Amino acid sequence: MIKRAIVLAAGEGMRLRPLTLAIPKEMIRVGTKPVIEHAINVLKAGGIGEILVVVGRKKEAIMDYLGSGERLGVDISYKIQEELKGTAHAVYQGKDFIGNEDFVVIYGDNYLKPYEVMKEIVKFHEEKRADATLVLHPVKDPRRFGIVKIDANNKVLGIIEKPTLEEAQSYKMENIYLSIAGLLVLKPVVFEYIEKTNLGKHNEIWLTDSIQLMKEDGATIYGFLFKGARYDIGTFGSLKEADKLEQTKGQ
């Protein structure tokens, strides 16, 4: 049973300026709740109650709102990522918190419905005895996402982070791409591979590159195909769509 998770909430939200000059991206409301609360509700629905939120500087609003997590029925602690060096570097901030157990990573700007899918994801990960399970969701434009190619048994064949359209061509499947839906289940061995990961695009250390290193060493990496609703609140367009969905079908 997976008990712990890391929520990534240190990003600057550049595409949502000027809104994010005033509040952190993760505190932008989708329906009646900040998007980070939706992410925590996903974890909670999967039985995950011990959560580390990795925040950047000037993210006091997140800490003030979530507090200890008691109000939300979970236990929340915090770690500050002093320098924004990428997703792998952010996850690495949770190494001591995680210890030796499998854990979940979810992006704090991630809106997924239904929340209960987390139970299915954990079950899938455990049944596959995977070293990493990547939750995948179809997108038409691959350039903003980590894109994954899988075989007929959902085993991951390749991963590429924020590719150009040309780079993504070999990953295209039936006119769509499978993106990592801001949600992963990982074995703690990933921390060893983060230590070995070189700087990638934009001079950041990408979690997808660390997982690719795991794969090259023979790790078993699977993709879970998520068929619900998913938006990353990274653009005004996706924010609008998520809010519209939550207003009509929220819980």
Structure write-up:
The strands form three sheets. Strands 1, 4, 5, 6, 8, 9, 10, 11 and 12 form a nine-stranded mixed β-sheet that branches. A two-stranded antiparallel sheet has the order 2-3. It is built from ten helices and 13 strands. Helix 8 (190-196) crosses helix 9. The longest helix has 14 residues, at 236-249. The chain is an alpha/beta fold.
Q: What attributes characterize this protein structure?
A:
nine-stranded mixed beta sheet, Spore Coat Polysaccharide Biosynthesis Protein SpsA, Chain A, globular, 251 residues, single chain, two-stranded antiparallel ribbon
Q: What letter string, H or E per element, gives the SSE order? A: EHEEHEHEHHEEHEEEHEHHEEH
- Specify the structural class: alpha/beta
Estimate what percentage of residues fall within beta strands.
25-35%
Count of β-strands: 13
Give the overall shape, derived from the CA principal axes.
globular
- Looking at this structure, what is the CATH superfamily? Spore Coat Polysaccharide Biosynthesis Protein SpsA, Chain A
The separation of the N and C termini measures: 26 Å
CATH level 1 class label = Alpha Beta
CATH topology: Spore Coat Polysaccharide Biosynthesis Protein SpsA, Chain A
Could you give a quick summary of the protein structure above?
Helices cover 31% and strands 27% of the residues. It contains ten helices and 13 strands.
Could you outline the blueprint of secondary structure elements for this entry?
Elements: E1 4-9, H1 19-22, E2 29-30, E3 33-34, H2 35-45, E4 50-55, H3 60-66, E5 75-80, H4 87-92, H5 95-98, E6 103-107, E7 110-113, H6 117-128, E8 132-139, E9 146-150, E10 156-161, H7 165-168, E11 177-186, H8 190-196, H9 207-216, E12 221-225, E13 229-232, H10 236-249
